[in-house]
Sequence to fold (625 residues):
Amino acid sequence: MTIVKRIISERPHVLLMAVFTAAMLALHQLVFLYGDDYFYGTFAQNGAAVFFDMHAEHYMTVNGRSVVHILASLLLIFDVYLWRLINPFIILLTLCFLSGVIHSRRPQITQRKGFAPVLAMSMGLFLLIDIYVARAGIYWLDGSMNYLYPIFMLSWTVYIFDKSLTDGKKHYFLPLLSFFAGATTEQGGLMTAGILLAVVISEVFNAKTKLGAPSGRKLKCVNYISLLCAFAGYISVAFAPGTFERWGIENAGLSVENIISAVNFFFIEVESALFIMLTMLSASFILNILAREIYAKNRCGIFRLFNYFVQACIYFWLLLYIIATENVIFTKNMFAFAVITPVCLMLLYVFALYFIIRGNVFPLAFFIAALGAQISMAVIPVPYHRTLLCSILAMILPITTAVSEINDSAVAKVFSAASLLCGAMSFALVFYGYAGNYTVNQYNLAQIKELQTDNSNERAILKMLPDDMYGWSPLHSSSYHIPHLERYYGLPADSVFIHFPEIFTRLYVNGDRLYTNVPPYYVENRGVYCISIRDISRAFDYSDNWDEGAGQVTIDTGEKRVRISAAAGEVTVDGNTIEGSEFVIFNYNSHFMIESDFYEKIFGFDIDISQRAGENEGVDLSIIA
Fold:
């Protein structure tokens, strides 16, 4: 008991770290493989040569994130189990480095004293990250490598880089660390290179002006080399051949329209709005402290009035920001110029003032990096909430700067405790959500393992997740990943199916239930049911070839050859166009869907659609050859 009391009184951050890590480890035991995990998991199944060949091809044709994808593939050798142990510590170290960076710039406060409130608030803010961001950027193996890991490398690099300015050590490994931090992703690499550049410029500025510069700080040769290495790493990702290949596919590029859309996405989404509002409140708090200090020294009334005016503007635009994010009358460009621009200018002013007075460039650099992370996504626009994670984590540092200013007071402890309490409640909801899916995930994994060991089974029928909010790209909503799952676990092709609830339309072929990964889809405005061409071809042992680029699928029965063109809206049989063949055709969940009447008119099958009665109401669609 005496030891525990001593830890609480002298090293409360140790207790915080222990509890936080235990909670993260417990949550990660409820997380399973999802989506692209199965795809990258196949890279390491055929030896080292194939492993590097596949990653080289990926680098040349998809994107430049070779380092993170290699790490993901190596982790997937051990299924999800090794990642479950490593990722909680990546989270913990990221928050410790971020907290350490801001706390280390307060030389008047001992390293141990006051660190706990900053760390506690960082932990609380992390736990408040919305599930739509966290499920794909933190609690997903491949996603965590693409969005969480880059910020871990960034925070580690910046922490060591800043420490190297004062501790007198050589830090020969820093250039290598900087390169790999820059070579993570487009967002992480740009942020790393940008922040290191800001530190170098700030140190040169402080050395020349002597404004707020902490004593004993000196740039060394290793710092300049590390900066160049960070840029080299970023260039290897941003200018990879696969990046330019993707530009052509997604019609992307660094245009004004794409930049406005990317920044708007960051500011207007509710998942990041909380952190932007907290940054504004933190800036107001910091400005009040700085204004009082400057007035006490210089007694400049005009300056004091100006800062009061800026504070009033911050609160006014904070209110306007809240209204704008909920009000559709603001167009994209209106929101960008009437709300985002003034907010950014005010925050830049406050953090620039903080740098001049305190000599601490990190709040300014991290805020700019948060914006830069979103602008970098204008090059390759990915409209998913997980792309917000890097910016959200970067915003933690400017927010906690306010706590670091008063970290030895009761107010700081109250703020930190409130943040941690709110974060704990958010964590409980996330834990409960993943726990609700755990039984089904375990059942599905057991079905896959049984199919692996028992060759007499023809198929594995998996269940839908009760709540797909707590899991990224589950199989029932993205059947594209099912073939990759089959290859990852060494299962026969077309052996894994999803059991949809009975309220979905059931499909029968010649009286036998046909299990599919996309149930028949009812197109309400046309009053027709559409079914997957791939599933029907498999049932009748037809061969089919899908040309996604041309929007065509060809079915070869052995007796006739049928080509369906979604783009032209026509059907040809043995080269002859069928008149009046305007069927409903579309691509859904990586399946080419066509209305059921197609098989009646072209193949002569009997189609019967009947309503089920009873407890499990739904529709039975029968195809009889």
Q: What stands out?
A: The radius of gyration is 28 Å. The chain has two domains: 19-432, 500-624. Residues 583 and 595 are 6 Å apart (CA to CA). The longest strand covers residues 606-612.
